From TrEMBL:
Protein name, entry field: Predicted protein
PROSITE patterns: EGF_1, EGF_2, EGF_3, EGF_LAM_1
KW Disulfide bond (keyword) present: yes
Gene Ontology molecular-function annotations: scavenger receptor activity
Keyword field: Disulfide bond, EGF-like domain
Record lineage: Eukaryota, Discoba, Heterolobosea, Tetramitia, Eutetramitia
Length: 289
């Protein structure tokens, strides 16, 4: 139905100015992150996945016939980034692997674990020091750049990547909301659980779509429902908080803050719930209790 303010009151599962967009798992069909960014929302909680992806939220895919979350994917020597695309391990601990399925050693490494250095009687820059250092008069390697180790085949603390040129500090680079992934070359892998929150972004400084709060651990299921009298709002909240009916007296609005989407920013603690409501051209929804 159309409200007196000229805004559509959409039924559950639909959103938009004319209620034209379906909602899939709390993300609108016109949001780039809907269906994990790997498909289209064609009906309420119904994703149509792109080629190579499957599952309810298009989060399932494989590399060369092996599921991405399997311990044997990419020959157990790498990670499956996308359908049939492996990123091989390049660390002393996990080995230095190569090939589409990470099933061969990256030269000049040898051995069962691809982390053995070829033995030579004489120190050689390209072999003994792996091209990452110079042999000194004592036959030892003097590493260059951010390389480290007897044979210059490791990175200094805080540096990642095949060239050890990517700096990552989990507290700074990942905003304390993730960790530096050595397999991915020092890219931040953001927290993705209820205990530590659901974060996203290059620096893990944003909440995943549908999650709110300082810890990005609170989720609102379905749109907020305002009572017929306009004196209360009902929200279904998951996370630290269970299902709650929030009385209007506990909802505070501040007109000075920018409002771009319904419940764009949610600040929660045990005593107060503050919701910034949607802006409608030059006016905005404000509850009077």
């Amino acid at each position: 139905p159309c409200l007196s303010t000229g805004v559509c009151d959409c039924p559950y599962g639909w959103t938009g100015d004319s209620c034209e967009f379906a909602i899939c798992f709390n993300v609108a069909a016109n949001d780039a992150s809907v269906c994990g960014g790997k498909g289209s929302c064609i009906d309420i909680d119904r994703c149509q996945c792109n080629a190579g992806y499957s599952g309810t939220k298009c989060s399932d895919y494989s590399c060369f016939g092996v599921r991405s979350n399997s311990t044997t994917v990419c020959s157990s020597h790498g990670v499956c980034l996308s359908p049939d695309k492996c990123q091989c391990a390049l660390t002393l601990e996990k080995g230095f692997w190569n090939g589409q399925q990470c099933d061969s050693c990256k030269l000049p490494y040898t051995g069962v674990k691809c982390n053995t250095i070829p033995q030579t009687d004489k120190c050689q820059d390209d072999v003994t020091c792996f091209g990452h250092g110079k042999c000194n008069s004592k036959g030892s390697c003097v590493c260059t750049g951010n390389f480290y180790g007897t044979n210059c085949n490791g990175c200094k603390t805080g540096y990642y990547g095949y060239d050890c040129n990517v700096y990552c500090d989990p507290k700074i680079t990942c905003s304390g909301n993730g960790y530096c992934d050595s397999i991915l070359g020092g890219v931040c892998t953001c927290n993705n659980n209820l205990s530590n929150g659901y974060f996203t972004g290059t620096n893990c400084n944003k909440c995943q779509s549908g999650y709110y709060g300082k810890k990005c651990s609170t989720q609102i299921l379905g749109p907020p429902i305002v009572s017929n009298l306009g004196n209360s709002m009902t929200l279904t909240i998951t996370g630290v908080y269970s299902k709650q009916n929030i009385p209007c007296s506990r909802i505070l609005t501040t007109p000075s803050v920018e409002r771009t989407t319904v419940v764009e920013n949610l600040l929660l603690n045990l005593e107060m719930l503050t919701i910034f409501l949607q802006e409608n051209q030059q006016s905005y929804l404000e509850l009077t209790c």
